[in-house]
């Protein structure tokens, strides 16, 4: 497979930043005194939790849909598929840009995300127990109806949108040694890694996944995208299978330096820690990044580290459970 043209991709990310600037926030990069002391490092949190619709997904959705808006046939609308956050972001982008669309979500979509989607008036269809089954159904429905399918990660314009996070991190913190990024289909890490590896090759990119659903990690080890069953995880945003031909694969294979798999109890501890020490809400995917840091102190000691707090959309029931569990033991 041809090497990724990092220079060309860098231009795509810069163009995306310009395209989405009127619709999305430049999110804060907040220093964490607690985690810095705990790890003996210099730890920052990139707060995509404060992004519109509560996750980084607005970046990719607005970039892609702004491009599609001027393309022939767009008046027929689009179909997309999502574990929740991409759906929330796409719903806002569709409404803002005046495009019609249907959002497929799996049967097991997190209840909190489904409720907000309905409240926001999204046109929803539920299908399948795994994100990949849901994506396949959505793609097939789009083909049958002759409308554009928008993948939540298997799309270079979506990846470029997510890559604008890399640009914002380097603007504020050129000395960054490590960036920890939660990985599902790989769009978020692909964009950030592509930007970083061109502008700051010394910065190491670490992919984090729940040990209960680690398809991209196993795929990179296998040299191709593989199917692996996912177990239940607090990190619903990153869970599930990946399209076989995903364009995110070469980015993950070639640009990610290290991988950390995170146990459920460490994801839970990550969520609780950010709530307790920062008074901020994060969802399970972001909890993976915090859990990865807290269980790998030696790796990050003395380094300047950014953990991407990719989303805040956690269900109340899950949150109550986590708070109860930790209140008992701490
Ligand atoms: C909060 C959150 N973090 C991380 C991810 C993973 O993103 P990607 O599929 O681009 O790897 C998702 C995907 O839905 C998400 O919702």
Automatic annotation (TrEMBL):
Cofactor(s) the protein requires to work: pyridoxal 5'-phosphate
Classification via Gene3D superfamilies: 3.40.50.1100
InterPro entries noted in UniProt: Ser/Thr_Dehydratase, Ser/Thr_deHydtase_PyrdxlP-BS, TrpB-like_PALP, TrpB-like_PALP_sf
All residue ranges annotated as the Tryptophan synthase beta chain-like PALP domain in the record: 22-311
Gene Ontology biological process terms from the UniProt entry: isoleucine biosynthetic process; L-serine catabolic process; L-threonine catabolic process
EC code: 4.3.1.17
Catalytic activity: L-serine = pyruvate + NH4(+)
Keywords: Lyase, Pyridoxal phosphate
Pfam families: PALP (PF00291)
Record bears the keyword Lyase: yes
GO molecular function: L-serine ammonia-lyase activity; pyridoxal phosphate binding; threonine deaminase activity
Protein name: L-serine ammonia-lyase
